[in-house]
């Protein structure tokens, strides 16, 4: 113990960790501290401090959360395997399997940032998903792994100023996107708020400094106002016999900034800049205090939340209200018990002490249940990519809380629809869903749910899912879980039916895009299917979406054989870029224009025709005017190909057939406007004999994928029979 005895600062910091601990527990932490100092000897942080100062700081953060001696010892050792020559086996031999498992889990959590990056195609996604599964297993087996990692990240953020700006932004972004939401999910608000504020400091430095400056400038007036509110409220609560501890609530810069952005408000208009927290003894006192607050000042109806009756997914419980307080100023008030406050600040860490004592704690079990559910998804998800996407959705996205008619709370990612809600209840409810009521009002299945809404799912006796639900442009499903359930249903459906449906879908997509002569085997090869039927069945089950088909068509569109054209095309060695996103064979730049007769778009097989005095006209290779060329005119053909100009727009003719109705043309043009597509011309006529409206539209699109997307959306409009590209 010579190191601890000779270093006064170290000895004092260790002694501060010894409160609440037995002699044996103190001895374990002391050994871990000495081991960490020896292992990190000679290492310094970017600040110039000895590296062991960091692990001591992490241990102190966890000690403030009242965590056990094993967690504190593991915090001392959390970097020895990653940053020194120490092996995990050595840690296990010296400190036992529990601490070794904690250290290993924290080491593996270093890889969590990888899952914010785009998943690559091929075998890489499976490797990534398996690594994620192992990571989640470590988290679910012992939640203390996450607590240590959060404390580690918190101290790193507190000392981030010593790194270069690029690393500051990268680490701050990762903290904002991953670690702060993780702390929120585990209910550790004390850590969540600080991580968010520190992230904002480096990601939005101007905004952070401006709000901090405004808070500092108004501090005196704000404190005077808060003290006035406390005096008034304390007197009223005492009259009613309610014992309470009233204080000003800390101001979180990130929260203020987000509200300013979301609601487009100025700093002066943010009501929770002035905030009070009321801590009472019992739950019934919360509601009694709320009545007194609303009796004193007029409350703002849109700013009330009862998280006691309806706790958040992280078990956060409190009453939130906003009132027009003294002097006509907006004021936020939070009301909760001491026990609720402790759990709000510490989250799962507060529950851990109960579990450590051997007693069953339903709060702890519920709080980490989502971690365990993540592990069960592995068998449900069709692809590794689905698994990774679902992890991101459930762990890190903002949430929305909707109610069943029986009052059960369903927790979903923000943006979820009634269909997502139905599948969250049960797969069969989702499969048979045919409609939904929100607070008694019928809404479309694409409706985005809001907090507190009551959702009543309307089902058929023998309903089945629709393949349209899997179309990403349709907006039916948001959650990865619901999408996986729909895919699973179609996977189990009759194989021959799926093959037929897949062929219909593929042929329809080719027809809509005006593509002919494409061998479907080429698409099957692209998706690594040995048999065409397997590929078609996958399309029929919805595993390959129309959007994915469009991408495959863009990349693998085969050139149509045109021997007569090919033999007569002029060739040259050198290529030069011409305007309009087309590469022209020959020397020098030539003026190009797109032929009005066939309107070629990127990835169409094309050929150039040298005009007299108007440069080169670009045609599709299957253009009728090109195929009819003879003699000297055929010698004017020149080889061209699509270039790299992504900003160019290309005119395309589209035909739409639909049963005529009021607002039809408006709805179609809205589709183009939403995708920022320029509408260049419209011609429409309605046949009075059958009521069919036939429209010819010319639009300017960027590529074939965009064309596929808008044709899909038009085809989903009411009364539309067919929408396709004119050939």
Structure commentary:
By secondary structure, this protein is α+β, with helices and mostly antiparallel strands. The chain has 6 domains: 2-188, Hypothetical protein af1432, CATH 1.10.3210.10; 212-346, 2-Layer Sandwich (Beta Polymerase, domain 2); 397-490, Ubiquitin-like (UB roll); 493-556, no CATH class; 563-642, no CATH class; 650-725, 2-Layer Sandwich (Alpha-Beta Plaits). Residues 117-128, 353-360 and 556-580 have low confidence and may be disordered. Helix 9 packs across helix 21 (384-396). It is globular. Strands 1, 2, 3, 4, 5 and 6 form a 6-stranded mixed beta sheet that branches. Strands 14-16-15-17 form a 4-stranded mixed beta sheet, with no helix packed on it. The chain has 32 helices and 22 strands. The chain is 50% helix and 16% strand. A hairpin with a 3-residue loop joins strand 12 and strand 13.
Brief descriptors of the model:
6 domains, 727 residues, Ubiquitin-like (UB roll), 4-stranded mixed sheet, globular, Hypothetical protein af1432, 6-stranded mixed sheet, 32 helices, alpha+beta, 22 strands, Beta Polymerase, domain 2
Structural class: alpha+beta
How many helices does DSSP assign? 32
CATH topology of the largest domain: Hypothetical protein af1432
* Termini separation: 85 Å
């Amino acid at each position: 113990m010579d190191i601890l005895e000779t270093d006064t600062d170290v000895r004092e910091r260790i002694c501060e960790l010894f409160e609440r601990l037995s002699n044996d527990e103190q001895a374990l932490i002391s050994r871990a501290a000495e081991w960490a100092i020896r292992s990190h000897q000679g290492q310094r942080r970017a600040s110039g401090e000895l590296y062991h100062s960091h692990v001591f700081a992490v241990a102190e953060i966890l000690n403030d959360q009242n965590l056990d001696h094993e967690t504190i010892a593991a915090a001392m050792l959390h970097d020895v395997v990653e940053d020194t020559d120490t092996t995990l086996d050595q840690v296990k031999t010296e400190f036992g399997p529990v601490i070794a498992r904690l250290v290993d889990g924290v080491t593996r959590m270093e890889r969590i940032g990888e899952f914010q990056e785009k998943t690559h195609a091929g075998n890489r996604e499976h490797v990534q998903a398996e690594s994620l599964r192992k990571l989640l297993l470590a988290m679910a087996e012992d939640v203390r792994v996450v607590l240590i990692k959060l404390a580690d990240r918190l101290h790193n953020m507190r000392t981030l100023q010593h790194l270069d700006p690029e690393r500051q932004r990268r680490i701050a972004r990762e903290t904002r996107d991953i670690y702060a939401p993780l702390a929120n999910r585990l209910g550790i608000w004390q850590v969540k708020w600080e991580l968010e504020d520190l992230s904002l400091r480096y990601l939005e430095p101007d905004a952070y400094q401006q709000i901090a400056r405004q808070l500092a400038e108004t501090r005196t007036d704000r404190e005077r106002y808060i003290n006035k509110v406390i005096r008034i409220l304390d007197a009223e609560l005492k009259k009613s016999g309610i014992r309470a501890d009233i204080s000003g609530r800390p101001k979180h810069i990130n929260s203020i900034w987000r509200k300013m952005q979301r609601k487009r408000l100025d700093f002066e208009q943010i009501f929770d800049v002035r905030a009070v927290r009321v801590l009472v003894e019992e739950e019934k006192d919360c509601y009694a205090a709320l009545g007194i607050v609303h009796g004193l000042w007029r409350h703002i109806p849109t700013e009330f939340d009862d998280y006691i009756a309806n706790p958040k997914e992280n078990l956060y419980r409190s009453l939130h209200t906003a009132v027009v307080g003294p002097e006509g100023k907006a004021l936020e008030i939070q009301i909760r018990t001491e026990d609720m406050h402790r759990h709000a600040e510490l989250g799962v860490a507060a529950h851990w002490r109960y579990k450590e004592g051997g007693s069953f704690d339903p709060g702890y079990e519920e709080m980490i249940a989502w971690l365990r559910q993540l592990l069960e998804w592995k068998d449900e998800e069709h692809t590794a990519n689905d698994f990774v996407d679902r992890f991101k959705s459930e762990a890190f996205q903002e949430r929305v809380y909707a109610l069943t008619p029986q009052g059960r709370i369903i927790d979903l990612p923000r943006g979820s629809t009634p269909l997502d809600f139905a599948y969250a209840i049960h797969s069969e409810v989702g499969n048979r869903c045919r409609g939904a009521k929100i607070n008694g009002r019928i809404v479309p299945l694409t409706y985005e749910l809001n907090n507190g809404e009551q959702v009543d799912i309307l089902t058929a006796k023998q309903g089945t899912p629709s393949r349209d639900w899997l179309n990403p442009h349709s907006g039916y499903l948001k959650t990865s879980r619901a999408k996986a359930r729909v895919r699973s249903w179609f996977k189990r459906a009759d194989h021959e039916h799926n093959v037929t449906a897949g062929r219909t879908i593929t042929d329809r997509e080719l027809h809509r895009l005006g593509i002919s002569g494409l061998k479907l085997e080429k698409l099957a090869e692209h998706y690594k299917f040995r048999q065409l039927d397997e590929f078609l069945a996958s399309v029929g089950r919805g595993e390959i979406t129309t959007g994915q088909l469009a991408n495959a068509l863009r990349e693998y569109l085969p050139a149509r054989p045109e021997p007569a054209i090919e033999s007569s095309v002029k060739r040259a060695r050198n290529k030069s870029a011409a305007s309009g996103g087309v590469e022209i064979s020959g020397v020098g730049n030539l003026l190009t224009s797109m032929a009005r007769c066939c309107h070629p778009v990127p990835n169409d097989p094309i050929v150039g025709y040298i005009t007299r005095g108007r440069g080169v006209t670009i045609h599709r290779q299957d253009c009728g005017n090109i195929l009819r060329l003879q003699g000297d005119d055929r010698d004017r053909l020149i080889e061209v190909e699509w270039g790299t100009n992504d900003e160019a727009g290309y005119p395309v003719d589209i035909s739409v057939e639909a049963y005529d109705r009021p607002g039809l043309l408006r709805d179609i043009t809205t589709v183009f406007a939403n995708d920022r597509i320029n509408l260049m011309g419209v011609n429409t006529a309605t046949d009075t004999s059958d009521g069919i409206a036939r429209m010819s539209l010319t639009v300017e699109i960027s590529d074939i994928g965009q064309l596929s997307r808008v044709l899909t959306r038009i085809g989903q409009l009411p009364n539309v029979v067919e929408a396709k590209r004119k050939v």
